[in-house]
Amino acid sequence: MTEHSSLLSRTLGITFPFIILFSIYMILNGHITPGGGFQGGAVMASIFIAKYLIVPVKDIRLVGVQFVEKIALLLILLFATAFVISGLNIIFPSFSQVYMVVMNVLIGLKVACGMTIIFYRFVYYESR
Amino acid sequence: MLELTLILLIILAIAAMQTRSMRNAVIYLGVFSLAISFVYLALNAPDVAIAEAVIGSTIATILYLVALQKYKIFTIYYRLQDAEIKDEHFYASYKMQLVKSLEKFCTKQELEAQIIYTHEQLADILIKHQYALIVEEHDDFFSIYAHHENYMLDKLEVFLEHEPPFKLPFRIIKLEEMESEVIE
Amino acid sequence: MRRKLIAILLVGIGLFTLVQSQNMPAIDALPLSAYYAENAYPVTGSVNVVTSIYLFFRVYDTLFEALMLLFSIIGVIYMSIHEGETHDD
């Protein structure tokens, strides 16, 4: 996609902050309203995809994104297993809400990074 | 309202299968995802509806479109005038200049040129095969046949005019749907 | 040696999971969906039942789902390095 339309870039430029706000809202309120980590992360990944439609320039470092993704997976594994095994939810029932918010944030981060990696890999590294 | 959307889903699915152009099929699938996310919402499953709307309607559609942009085969049938293909000297002759510049055009448009040399009659090619361009050589000129909805045709015309001139002139003939019988 | 260590680690994880599954409270209510719909808020404190299921009742499922995403990304990276021209920066 060498030629890009000014109509598309103007429209996406206006809706850009709303998409970001919507995704953050969806992740943080996953335990109260519909939505959650996976959906919010996918919305957040669609920001980068929209950015590709506006300016098709690769200016994010994929290695950094991969690092963030791996760290997020490690934290998810550690946090979830620690929470379930230690039985904190029985001792402090109010703690489980905090657990859900943290897990939603981690899952959202991981899904956003993963989808961004898949899309950018596909777009910029796949020759032909 | 729910029943109407379900009927719309069936119509969209059939349309996505029956359409001729890949691009239209991708757009139909995007609309299908949007409609089915509405159905999920009507059935009290907002989580699934959000996931379907984001993944199916946005990300998958854009991925399909980029894939179509990246991988397109531009099929060119080159109809030889003589009854048999000559030796490799033939490929070096000046008539190949047109084929070379067509390949150059395809590379510039990020298409993959697939050139098929054939002796079949023009009407047979039109009926039997999927083609993007048909090049027919004559003694003193080339004729390039293409479907009139081929959106690459204007770019091709401009490109061929700006190329170094050929020894033989060429003309571009746009085919209507019905004209395949007329040529016979 | 490294393979044996990995095998020992995997067997350890399996045994640990078995032991843990013995300690889990059994749910006797037969329609499981009704149990989740009733007990989602009192047990986990989350209004959204879907979130309470995938983050609490079925948390191991979520963990391995996250692992699946990582595997698919590994596959994409592996394929595109071999297709593309050079290694990434």
Characterise this structure.
The complex is a heterotrimer of chains A (128), B (184) and C (89). Chain A is an all-alpha fold. Helices cover 78% and strands 0% of the residues of chain A. Chain A has one domain. Chain A contains five helices and no strands. The two termini of chain A are 13 Å apart. Chain B is α/β, with parallel strands linked by helices and 184 residues long. Chain B has two domains: 2-69; 72-183. The model of chain B has no long low-confidence stretch (mean pLDDT 76). Chain C is mainly alpha-helical and 89 residues long. Chain C has one domain (2-83). In chain C, helix 2 crosses helix 3. In chain C, 13% of the residues are buried. Classes of the chains: A mainly alpha (128), B alpha/beta (184), C mainly alpha (89). Chains in contact: A-B, A-C. Chain A binds chain B through residues 1, 26, 34-36, 38-39, 42-43, 45-46, 49, 53, 115, 119, 122-123, 126, 128, and chain B through 46-47, 49-51, 54-55, 58-59, 62-63, 66-67, 69-71, 112. Chain A: This is Multicomponent Na+:H+ antiporter subunit B. Chain A: It is found in: Cell membrane. Chain A: It holds the Pfam family MnhB. Chain A: Its main location: membrane.
Strand percent estimate of chain A: under 5%
Percentage of residues in helical conformation of chain B: 55-70%
Structural domains of chain B: how many: 2
In spatial order, strands of the major sheet of chain B run: 2-1-3-4-5
- Strand segment tally of chain A: 0
- Radius of gyration of chain B, in Å, reads 22 Å
Strand content of chain B: 15-25%
Overall structural class of chain B, as computed from helix and strand content, comes to: alpha/beta
Number of domains in the coordinates of chain A?
1
Largest sheet of chain A: none
Low-confidence stretches of chain A are: none
The number of E-state strands of chain B comes to 5
- Helix/strand order of chain A: HHHHH
Biggest interface goes to: A-C, 40 and 31 residues
Q: Which bin fits the share of residues in helices of chain A? A: over 70%
Our count of helices of chain B gives: 8
Helices and strands in order, then pairings?
The complex is a heterotrimer of chains A (128), B (184) and C (89).
Chain A lengths: L5 H23 L8 H18 L7 H25 L1 H4 L3 H30 L4
Chain B lengths: L1 H17 L3 H21 L3 H25 L2 E7 L8 H4 L4 H13 L3 E7 L3 H7 L4 E5 L4 E6 L5 H10 L7 E6 L3 H5 L1
Parallel strand pairs in B: 1-2, 1-3, 4-5
Antiparallel strand pairs in B: 3-4
Helix pairs in contact in B: 1-2, 2-3
Chain C lengths: L1 H22 L8 H13 L4 H9 L1 H25 L6
